Amino acid sequence: MVKQIPPVQKNQTIELTFEDLTHEGDGVGKINGYPLFVPYGLPGEKAKVKVIKVKKNFGFGKLLEIDQVSPDRVEPPCDVYVQCGGCQLQHMSYNLQLNMKQNQVKNALKKVGHITDVPVHSTIGMDDPWRYRNKVQIPVGYRGGELITGFYRKRSHEIIDGMDTCVITAEINDRMVEAVRRIADRLGIQAYNEEKHKGVLRHIMVRTGFETNETMIVLVTRTEELPYETELVKELNETYPQIKSIVQNVNKQKTNVILGKNTKVLWGQEYIYDTIGDIKFAISAKSFYQVNPAQTKKLYDKALEYADLSGNEIVIDAYCGIGTISLFLAQKAKKVYGVEIVPEAISDAKANAKLNHMDNVEFYVGEAEKVMPWWTAQGLRPDVIVVDPPRKGCEEALLEAMITMKPKRIVYVSCNPSTLARDLRILEDGGYETKQVQPVDMFPQTGHVECVALIELK
Ligand code: SAH
Protein backbone atom coordinates (compact mmCIF):
# COMPACT_ATOMS: atom_id res chain seq x y z
CA MET A 1 0.00 0.00 0.00
CA VAL A 2 1.28 3.45 -0.86
CA LYS A 3 1.81 5.56 2.22
CA GLN A 4 -0.39 8.64 2.05
CA ILE A 5 1.20 11.91 3.00
CA PRO A 6 -1.24 14.58 4.25
CA PRO A 7 -1.52 17.19 1.48
CA VAL A 8 -1.42 20.10 3.95
CA GLN A 9 0.97 21.35 6.60
CA LYS A 10 0.42 22.93 9.97
CA ASN A 11 0.02 26.74 9.87
CA GLN A 12 -0.54 26.72 6.12
CA THR A 13 -3.39 28.89 4.84
CA ILE A 14 -5.56 27.15 2.25
CA GLU A 15 -8.68 27.72 0.21
CA LEU A 16 -11.34 25.16 1.21
CA THR A 17 -14.88 24.33 0.08
CA PHE A 18 -17.10 22.73 2.72
CA GLU A 19 -19.10 19.72 1.62
CA ASP A 20 -20.53 18.35 4.81
CA LEU A 21 -20.96 18.67 8.59
CA THR A 22 -19.61 16.52 11.44
CA HIS A 23 -21.74 15.31 14.36
CA GLU A 24 -20.69 18.38 16.29
CA GLY A 25 -21.70 20.68 13.44
CA ASP A 26 -18.15 21.49 12.25
CA GLY A 27 -17.64 22.04 8.53
CA VAL A 28 -15.89 19.30 6.54
CA GLY A 29 -13.86 20.10 3.42
CA LYS A 30 -11.41 17.91 1.49
CA ILE A 31 -8.03 18.52 -0.11
CA ASN A 32 -7.25 15.62 -2.48
CA GLY A 33 -9.57 13.42 -0.45
CA TYR A 34 -7.96 14.40 2.87
CA PRO A 35 -10.70 15.75 5.22
CA LEU A 36 -10.25 18.88 7.29
CA PHE A 37 -12.63 19.69 10.13
CA VAL A 38 -13.29 23.37 10.63
CA PRO A 39 -15.58 24.81 13.34
CA TYR A 40 -18.24 27.21 11.99
CA GLY A 41 -17.81 26.19 8.32
CA LEU A 42 -21.07 25.48 6.47
CA PRO A 43 -21.70 23.22 3.46
CA GLY A 44 -21.39 25.09 0.18
CA GLU A 45 -19.14 27.76 1.63
CA LYS A 46 -15.73 28.61 0.22
CA ALA A 47 -13.29 29.95 2.78
CA LYS A 48 -9.71 30.71 3.73
CA VAL A 49 -8.70 28.29 6.44
CA LYS A 50 -5.57 28.05 8.57
CA VAL A 51 -4.46 24.46 9.16
CA ILE A 52 -3.91 24.04 12.90
CA LYS A 53 -3.52 20.29 13.35
CA VAL A 54 -2.42 17.59 10.90
CA LYS A 55 -3.07 13.93 11.65
CA LYS A 56 -2.48 10.92 9.42
CA ASN A 57 -6.01 10.63 8.04
CA PHE A 58 -7.58 13.98 8.85
CA GLY A 59 -6.79 17.47 10.10
CA PHE A 60 -8.29 20.49 11.84
CA GLY A 61 -8.49 24.07 10.66
CA LYS A 62 -9.56 27.52 11.76
CA LEU A 63 -11.93 29.64 9.72
CA LEU A 64 -10.18 32.87 8.67
CA GLU A 65 -12.40 34.42 6.03
CA ILE A 66 -15.49 33.27 4.14
CA ASP A 67 -15.33 34.06 0.41
CA GLN A 68 -18.64 32.50 -0.51
CA VAL A 69 -21.27 32.66 2.22
CA SER A 70 -23.99 30.00 2.63
CA PRO A 71 -27.61 31.20 2.61
CA ASP A 72 -27.96 29.10 5.78
CA ARG A 73 -25.46 31.24 7.69
CA VAL A 74 -27.17 33.42 10.31
CA GLU A 75 -25.88 35.92 12.84
CA PRO A 76 -25.65 34.18 16.27
CA PRO A 77 -27.85 36.21 18.65
CA CYS A 78 -25.67 35.38 21.65
CA ASP A 79 -22.83 37.80 22.44
CA VAL A 80 -20.62 35.08 23.90
CA TYR A 81 -21.45 32.24 21.48
CA VAL A 82 -17.84 31.45 20.56
CA GLN A 83 -16.34 31.87 24.05
CA CYS A 84 -19.01 29.79 25.81
CA GLY A 85 -19.27 26.68 23.67
CA GLY A 86 -22.53 25.60 25.34
CA CYS A 87 -24.25 25.97 21.95
CA GLN A 88 -22.61 24.79 18.72
CA LEU A 89 -25.14 25.61 16.00
CA GLN A 90 -26.17 29.24 16.45
CA HIS A 91 -24.45 30.23 13.18
CA MET A 92 -26.78 27.88 11.25
CA SER A 93 -30.36 28.48 10.13
CA TYR A 94 -32.78 26.44 12.20
CA ASN A 95 -33.83 24.59 9.07
CA LEU A 96 -30.28 23.40 8.48
CA GLN A 97 -29.99 22.33 12.12
CA LEU A 98 -33.09 20.15 11.73
CA ASN A 99 -31.86 18.67 8.44
CA MET A 100 -28.45 17.99 9.92
CA LYS A 101 -29.99 16.08 12.82
CA GLN A 102 -32.17 14.00 10.51
CA ASN A 103 -29.13 13.16 8.35
CA GLN A 104 -27.11 12.24 11.37
CA VAL A 105 -29.71 9.63 12.34
CA LYS A 106 -29.90 8.32 8.75
CA ASN A 107 -26.11 8.05 8.49
CA ALA A 108 -25.73 6.27 11.81
CA LEU A 109 -28.40 3.73 10.86
CA LYS A 110 -26.65 3.10 7.56
CA LYS A 111 -23.01 3.09 8.70
CA VAL A 112 -23.29 1.52 12.16
CA GLY A 113 -26.46 -0.54 11.87
CA HIS A 114 -26.43 -1.36 8.12
CA ILE A 115 -30.09 -0.34 8.11
CA THR A 116 -30.99 1.55 4.93
CA ASP A 117 -34.60 0.94 4.07
CA VAL A 118 -36.23 2.49 7.16
CA PRO A 119 -38.04 5.83 7.00
CA VAL A 120 -36.29 8.47 9.12
CA HIS A 121 -38.79 11.33 9.32
CA SER A 122 -38.02 15.05 9.26
CA THR A 123 -36.89 16.29 12.67
CA ILE A 124 -39.74 17.69 14.78
CA GLY A 125 -38.51 21.17 15.68
CA MET A 126 -39.75 24.11 17.75
CA ASP A 127 -41.69 27.08 16.38
CA ASP A 128 -39.42 29.31 18.43
CA PRO A 129 -36.14 27.51 19.13
CA TRP A 130 -34.90 29.98 21.79
CA ARG A 131 -35.33 30.44 25.55
CA TYR A 132 -36.57 26.86 25.84
CA ARG A 133 -34.59 25.68 28.90
CA ASN A 134 -36.54 25.51 32.16
CA LYS A 135 -33.40 25.17 34.27
CA VAL A 136 -30.17 27.09 34.61
CA GLN A 137 -27.20 26.43 36.88
CA ILE A 138 -24.60 29.13 36.81
CA PRO A 139 -21.27 29.57 38.64
CA VAL A 140 -20.67 32.58 40.90
CA GLY A 141 -17.38 34.48 41.08
CA TYR A 142 -15.84 37.93 41.48
CA ARG A 143 -14.71 40.62 39.15
CA GLY A 144 -13.39 43.95 40.40
CA GLY A 145 -14.75 43.23 43.88
CA GLU A 146 -18.26 42.61 42.54
CA LEU A 147 -20.17 39.34 42.56
CA ILE A 148 -20.65 38.04 39.00
CA THR A 149 -22.39 35.09 37.39
CA GLY A 150 -21.72 33.57 33.98
CA PHE A 151 -20.89 30.33 32.23
CA TYR A 152 -17.30 29.18 32.03
CA ARG A 153 -15.25 29.96 28.97
CA LYS A 154 -14.86 26.84 26.77
CA ARG A 155 -12.45 24.29 28.30
CA SER A 156 -11.72 26.53 31.30
CA HIS A 157 -13.07 27.52 34.70
CA GLU A 158 -12.95 31.22 34.03
CA ILE A 159 -16.32 32.97 34.10
CA ILE A 160 -17.02 34.76 30.82
CA ASP A 161 -16.75 38.50 31.03
CA GLY A 162 -19.90 40.54 30.52
CA MET A 163 -22.28 37.65 30.06
CA ASP A 164 -25.69 38.92 31.14
CA THR A 165 -28.07 36.53 29.46
CA CYS A 166 -28.30 33.06 27.95
CA VAL A 167 -30.50 32.97 24.85
CA ILE A 168 -31.60 29.35 25.31
CA THR A 169 -32.58 29.88 28.96
CA ALA A 170 -36.09 30.99 29.94
CA GLU A 171 -36.13 34.74 30.53
CA ILE A 172 -37.64 34.33 33.99
CA ASN A 173 -34.71 32.14 35.09
CA ASP A 174 -32.21 34.64 33.73
CA ARG A 175 -33.92 37.39 35.71
CA MET A 176 -33.98 35.29 38.88
CA VAL A 177 -30.24 34.58 38.63
CA GLU A 178 -29.62 38.31 38.25
CA ALA A 179 -31.87 39.09 41.23
CA VAL A 180 -30.06 36.62 43.48
CA ARG A 181 -26.68 37.91 42.32
CA ARG A 182 -27.62 41.54 42.92
CA ILE A 183 -29.10 40.98 46.37
CA ALA A 184 -26.27 38.66 47.46
CA ASP A 185 -23.71 41.21 46.29
CA ARG A 186 -25.40 44.03 48.18
CA LEU A 187 -25.63 41.94 51.36
CA GLY A 188 -21.98 40.99 51.11
CA ILE A 189 -22.39 37.22 50.64
CA GLN A 190 -19.07 35.82 49.49
CA ALA A 191 -18.58 33.98 46.22
CA TYR A 192 -16.83 30.63 46.27
CA ASN A 193 -13.20 30.59 45.18
CA GLU A 194 -12.55 27.33 43.37
CA GLU A 195 -8.73 27.42 43.51
CA LYS A 196 -8.53 28.13 47.24
CA HIS A 197 -11.69 26.14 48.04
CA LYS A 198 -12.83 29.07 50.20
CA GLY A 199 -15.89 31.34 50.22
CA VAL A 200 -19.58 30.52 50.23
CA LEU A 201 -21.84 30.76 47.16
CA ARG A 202 -20.78 28.30 44.43
CA HIS A 203 -23.71 28.13 42.03
CA ILE A 204 -27.16 29.61 41.60
CA MET A 205 -29.64 27.15 40.15
CA VAL A 206 -33.11 28.21 39.03
CA ARG A 207 -35.86 25.96 37.74
CA THR A 208 -39.33 27.05 36.59
CA GLY A 209 -42.33 24.90 35.74
CA PHE A 210 -43.46 26.33 32.39
CA GLU A 211 -47.05 25.16 32.83
CA THR A 212 -47.41 26.22 36.47
CA ASN A 213 -45.05 29.26 36.56
CA GLU A 214 -43.62 28.01 39.84
CA THR A 215 -39.97 28.85 40.40
CA MET A 216 -37.41 27.15 42.63
CA ILE A 217 -34.18 28.85 43.67
CA VAL A 218 -31.29 26.63 44.74
CA LEU A 219 -28.34 28.30 46.46
CA VAL A 220 -25.37 25.94 46.28
CA THR A 221 -22.91 26.74 49.06
CA ARG A 222 -19.59 25.32 50.28
CA THR A 223 -20.56 26.00 53.88
CA GLU A 224 -23.44 24.77 56.06
CA GLU A 225 -23.97 28.36 57.09
CA LEU A 226 -25.29 30.90 54.62
CA PRO A 227 -24.61 34.41 55.97
CA TYR A 228 -27.52 36.87 55.56
CA GLU A 229 -29.81 33.94 54.79
CA THR A 230 -32.87 35.59 56.40
CA GLU A 231 -32.37 38.89 54.55
CA LEU A 232 -31.75 37.21 51.19
CA VAL A 233 -34.77 34.91 51.49
CA LYS A 234 -37.05 37.71 52.68
CA GLU A 235 -36.15 40.04 49.84
CA LEU A 236 -36.49 37.32 47.21
CA ASN A 237 -39.89 36.04 48.29
CA GLU A 238 -41.30 39.50 48.92
CA THR A 239 -40.20 40.79 45.52
CA TYR A 240 -40.93 37.78 43.31
CA PRO A 241 -44.27 36.05 43.97
CA GLN A 242 -43.60 33.27 41.43
CA ILE A 243 -40.89 31.88 43.73
CA LYS A 244 -42.45 28.92 45.52
CA SER A 245 -39.32 27.34 46.91
CA ILE A 246 -35.92 28.55 48.11
CA VAL A 247 -33.50 25.81 49.12
CA GLN A 248 -29.85 25.60 50.07
CA ASN A 249 -27.75 22.74 48.78
CA VAL A 250 -24.45 22.20 50.59
CA ASN A 251 -21.52 20.98 48.53
CA LYS A 252 -18.35 20.88 50.65
CA GLN A 253 -16.29 18.90 48.14
CA LYS A 254 -13.58 20.18 45.84
CA THR A 255 -15.34 18.93 42.72
CA ASN A 256 -16.85 19.84 39.35
CA VAL A 257 -20.13 18.20 40.35
CA ILE A 258 -22.53 21.05 41.01
CA LEU A 259 -24.89 19.69 43.65
CA GLY A 260 -23.86 18.21 47.01
CA LYS A 261 -25.63 15.57 49.03
CA ASN A 262 -27.80 17.60 51.40
CA THR A 263 -30.54 20.07 50.61
CA LYS A 264 -32.45 22.11 53.18
CA VAL A 265 -35.55 24.19 52.61
CA LEU A 266 -34.97 27.86 53.51
CA TRP A 267 -38.42 29.06 52.52
CA GLY A 268 -41.62 27.62 50.98
CA GLN A 269 -42.03 24.12 49.59
CA GLU A 270 -39.47 21.41 49.03
CA TYR A 271 -40.96 20.83 45.56
CA ILE A 272 -42.25 22.83 42.67
CA TYR A 273 -44.84 21.30 40.36
CA ASP A 274 -45.08 21.11 36.61
CA THR A 275 -47.21 19.20 34.13
CA ILE A 276 -46.46 17.49 30.84
CA GLY A 277 -49.70 16.72 29.04
CA ASP A 278 -52.12 15.48 31.70
CA ILE A 279 -49.44 14.28 34.11
CA LYS A 280 -48.31 16.31 37.09
CA PHE A 281 -44.77 16.13 38.46
CA ALA A 282 -43.26 17.17 41.78
CA ILE A 283 -39.69 18.30 41.18
CA SER A 284 -37.12 18.76 43.94
CA ALA A 285 -33.66 20.36 43.67
CA LYS A 286 -32.00 17.06 42.83
CA SER A 287 -34.71 15.51 40.65
CA PHE A 288 -33.91 14.84 37.04
CA TYR A 289 -36.48 16.64 34.92
CA GLN A 290 -36.36 17.19 31.17
CA VAL A 291 -35.10 20.71 30.38
CA ASN A 292 -37.25 21.34 27.31
CA PRO A 293 -40.83 20.50 28.36
CA ALA A 294 -42.49 21.56 25.08
CA GLN A 295 -40.39 19.13 23.04
CA THR A 296 -40.55 16.46 25.75
CA LYS A 297 -44.31 16.39 25.27
CA LYS A 298 -43.83 15.85 21.51
CA LEU A 299 -41.25 13.11 22.13
CA TYR A 300 -43.44 11.26 24.64
CA ASP A 301 -46.53 11.61 22.43
CA LYS A 302 -44.54 9.96 19.64
CA ALA A 303 -43.37 7.17 21.99
CA LEU A 304 -46.98 6.64 23.06
CA GLU A 305 -48.15 6.57 19.43
CA TYR A 306 -45.48 3.96 18.57
CA ALA A 307 -46.44 1.90 21.66
CA ASP A 308 -49.98 1.75 20.17
CA LEU A 309 -51.71 0.81 23.42
CA SER A 310 -55.36 -0.21 23.71
CA GLY A 311 -55.63 -0.58 27.48
CA ASN A 312 -54.92 -4.30 27.81
CA GLU A 313 -51.13 -4.29 27.53
CA ILE A 314 -48.38 -5.12 29.96
CA VAL A 315 -45.54 -2.63 29.36
CA ILE A 316 -41.97 -2.33 30.64
CA ASP A 317 -40.28 1.08 30.77
CA ALA A 318 -36.54 0.47 31.16
CA TYR A 319 -34.25 3.34 32.25
CA CYS A 320 -37.38 5.06 33.53
CA GLY A 321 -35.80 7.93 35.55
CA ILE A 322 -38.51 9.63 37.60
CA GLY A 323 -41.15 7.70 35.67
CA THR A 324 -42.11 10.37 33.15
CA ILE A 325 -42.58 7.98 30.23
CA SER A 326 -44.00 5.24 32.52
CA LEU A 327 -46.81 7.53 33.69
CA PHE A 328 -47.50 8.65 30.14
CA LEU A 329 -47.82 4.99 29.10
CA ALA A 330 -49.87 4.04 32.18
CA GLN A 331 -52.70 6.29 30.94
CA LYS A 332 -53.26 3.80 28.12
CA ALA A 333 -51.90 0.46 29.42
CA LYS A 334 -53.15 -2.22 31.79
CA LYS A 335 -49.90 -2.30 33.75
CA VAL A 336 -46.49 -0.61 33.52
CA TYR A 337 -43.27 -1.80 35.17
CA GLY A 338 -40.49 0.79 35.45
CA VAL A 339 -36.85 0.06 36.25
CA GLU A 340 -34.10 2.58 36.98
CA ILE A 341 -30.68 2.50 38.68
CA VAL A 342 -30.90 5.69 40.81
CA PRO A 343 -32.88 5.11 44.05
CA GLU A 344 -33.84 8.80 44.46
CA ALA A 345 -35.34 8.81 40.96
CA ILE A 346 -37.48 5.78 41.87
CA SER A 347 -38.69 7.57 45.03
CA ASP A 348 -39.71 10.49 42.82
CA ALA A 349 -41.35 8.10 40.36
CA LYS A 350 -43.44 6.49 43.12
CA ALA A 351 -44.41 9.89 44.52
CA ASN A 352 -45.42 11.05 41.03
CA ALA A 353 -47.57 7.95 40.48
CA LYS A 354 -49.37 8.74 43.75
CA LEU A 355 -49.72 12.41 42.86
CA ASN A 356 -51.54 11.37 39.67
CA HIS A 357 -53.58 8.65 41.41
CA MET A 358 -52.15 5.98 39.14
CA ASP A 359 -52.04 2.53 40.67
CA ASN A 360 -51.21 0.47 37.59
CA VAL A 361 -47.46 1.26 37.74
CA GLU A 362 -44.73 -0.47 39.73
CA PHE A 363 -41.21 0.89 40.02
CA TYR A 364 -38.03 -1.03 40.79
CA VAL A 365 -34.50 0.11 41.64
CA GLY A 366 -31.82 -1.84 39.81
CA GLU A 367 -29.69 -2.25 36.73
CA ALA A 368 -32.08 -2.78 33.83
CA GLU A 369 -29.72 -5.38 32.33
CA LYS A 370 -30.04 -7.49 35.51
CA VAL A 371 -33.68 -6.86 36.39
CA MET A 372 -34.96 -7.66 32.87
CA PRO A 373 -33.40 -11.18 32.70
CA TRP A 374 -34.78 -11.77 36.20
CA TRP A 375 -38.25 -10.68 35.11
CA THR A 376 -37.89 -13.00 32.11
CA ALA A 377 -37.05 -15.90 34.42
CA GLN A 378 -40.11 -15.01 36.52
CA GLY A 379 -42.24 -15.45 33.42
CA LEU A 380 -43.07 -11.77 32.80
CA ARG A 381 -43.98 -11.39 29.11
CA PRO A 382 -44.72 -7.75 28.25
CA ASP A 383 -46.59 -6.76 25.10
CA VAL A 384 -44.53 -3.61 24.65
CA ILE A 385 -41.11 -2.55 25.96
CA VAL A 386 -39.93 1.05 26.00
CA VAL A 387 -36.23 1.82 26.58
CA ASP A 388 -34.62 5.23 27.08
CA PRO A 389 -30.96 4.49 27.89
CA PRO A 390 -28.11 6.97 28.49
CA ARG A 391 -25.68 7.80 25.67
CA LYS A 392 -23.85 4.49 25.80
CA GLY A 393 -27.03 2.68 24.78
CA CYS A 394 -28.45 -0.64 26.05
CA GLU A 395 -26.34 -3.38 27.61
CA GLU A 396 -26.23 -6.56 25.57
CA ALA A 397 -27.85 -8.55 28.39
CA LEU A 398 -30.83 -6.24 28.22
CA LEU A 399 -31.15 -6.56 24.44
CA GLU A 400 -31.01 -10.35 24.82
CA ALA A 401 -33.65 -10.27 27.56
CA MET A 402 -35.92 -8.26 25.24
CA ILE A 403 -35.40 -10.77 22.42
CA THR A 404 -36.29 -13.62 24.83
CA MET A 405 -39.38 -11.81 26.14
CA LYS A 406 -40.62 -11.37 22.54
CA PRO A 407 -42.79 -8.26 22.98
CA LYS A 408 -44.79 -7.32 19.87
CA ARG A 409 -43.27 -3.87 19.86
CA ILE A 410 -40.18 -2.15 21.21
CA VAL A 411 -40.04 1.63 21.39
CA TYR A 412 -36.47 2.89 21.65
CA VAL A 413 -35.93 6.50 22.79
CA SER A 414 -32.32 7.47 22.13
CA CYS A 415 -30.04 10.45 22.69
CA ASN A 416 -27.24 8.93 20.62
CA PRO A 417 -27.89 7.75 17.04
CA SER A 418 -24.70 5.62 16.95
CA THR A 419 -25.57 3.41 19.92
CA LEU A 420 -29.19 3.29 18.73
CA ALA A 421 -27.99 1.94 15.37
CA ARG A 422 -25.69 -0.61 17.05
CA ASP A 423 -28.56 -1.86 19.25
CA LEU A 424 -31.06 -1.95 16.36
CA ARG A 425 -28.66 -4.26 14.50
CA ILE A 426 -28.72 -6.71 17.45
CA LEU A 427 -32.52 -6.54 17.67
CA GLU A 428 -32.87 -7.04 13.91
CA ASP A 429 -30.59 -10.10 14.07
CA GLY A 430 -32.78 -11.35 16.93
CA GLY A 431 -35.96 -11.36 14.84
CA TYR A 432 -37.11 -7.74 14.99
CA GLU A 433 -37.58 -5.16 12.28
CA THR A 434 -37.11 -1.39 12.55
CA LYS A 435 -40.24 0.27 11.16
CA GLN A 436 -39.64 4.01 11.49
CA VAL A 437 -37.52 6.56 13.28
CA GLN A 438 -38.56 10.04 14.38
CA PRO A 439 -35.91 12.61 15.39
CA VAL A 440 -37.18 15.28 17.83
CA ASP A 441 -35.15 18.42 18.48
CA MET A 442 -34.91 18.57 22.26
CA PHE A 443 -31.88 20.88 22.30
CA PRO A 444 -32.04 23.54 19.56
CA GLN A 445 -28.77 25.45 18.86
CA THR A 446 -26.76 22.52 20.21
CA GLY A 447 -25.45 19.38 18.50
CA HIS A 448 -27.53 16.99 20.61
CA VAL A 449 -29.80 14.64 18.66
CA GLU A 450 -32.74 12.77 20.17
CA CYS A 451 -34.98 10.30 18.39
CA VAL A 452 -37.53 7.56 18.91
CA ALA A 453 -37.61 4.32 16.95
CA LEU A 454 -40.39 1.78 16.47
CA ILE A 455 -39.26 -1.85 16.26
CA GLU A 456 -41.64 -4.75 15.67
CA LEU A 457 -41.41 -8.52 15.97
CA LYS A 458 -41.17 -10.05 12.49
N1 SAH B 1 -36.92 7.99 30.70
C1 SAH B 1 -36.52 9.03 31.61
C2 SAH B 1 -35.00 9.12 31.86
C3 SAH B 1 -34.07 8.72 30.77
S1 SAH B 1 -32.40 9.14 31.06
C4 SAH B 1 -37.05 10.37 31.15
O1 SAH B 1 -37.44 10.53 30.01
O2 SAH B 1 -37.10 11.29 31.96
C5 SAH B 1 -31.65 7.55 31.30
C6 SAH B 1 -31.85 6.98 32.69
O3 SAH B 1 -31.19 5.70 32.76
C7 SAH B 1 -31.25 7.81 33.83
O4 SAH B 1 -32.28 8.10 34.74
C8 SAH B 1 -30.18 6.89 34.44
O5 SAH B 1 -30.07 7.04 35.84
C9 SAH B 1 -30.69 5.52 34.08
N2 SAH B 1 -29.71 4.43 34.01
C10 SAH B 1 -28.42 4.48 33.61
N3 SAH B 1 -27.88 3.25 33.60
C11 SAH B 1 -28.85 2.38 33.98
C12 SAH B 1 -28.91 0.97 34.15
N4 SAH B 1 -27.85 0.21 33.90
N5 SAH B 1 -30.07 0.41 34.54
C13 SAH B 1 -31.16 1.19 34.77
N6 SAH B 1 -31.16 2.54 34.63
C14 SAH B 1 -30.02 3.12 34.26
Approximate shape = flat
Order of helices and strands: EEEEEHHEEHEEHEEEEHEHEHEHEHEHEE
Distance between the termini: 44 Å
How many strands?
A: 20
- Give the second-level CATH assignment, the architecture of the largest domain: 3-Layer(aba) Sandwich
Find the structural class using helix and strand composition.
alpha/beta
> What strand order characterises the main sheet?
16-15-14-17-18-20-19
Percentage of residues assigned to helices: 25-40%
Sheet with most strands: 7 strands, mixed
Report the uncertain regions: none
Regarding quaternary structure, what we see is single chain
Describe the secondary-structure layout.
Blueprint: E1 13-21, E2 27-31, E3 34-38, E4 46-54, E5 59-68, H1 81-84, H2 94-111, E6 135-143, E7 146-149, H3 171-187, E8 201-208, E9 215-221, H4 229-239, E10 243-250, E11 262-268, E12 272-276, E13 279-283, H5 293-307, E14 314-318, H6 324-330, E15 335-340, H7 343-355, E16 361-365, H8 368-377, E17 384-387, H9 396-405, E18 409-414, H10 417-429, E19 432-440, E20 450-457
Parallel strand pairs: 3-5, 9-10, 14-15, 14-17, 15-16, 17-18
Antiparallel strand pairs: 1-2, 1-4, 2-3, 4-5, 6-7, 6-8, 8-9, 10-11, 12-13, 18-20, 19-20
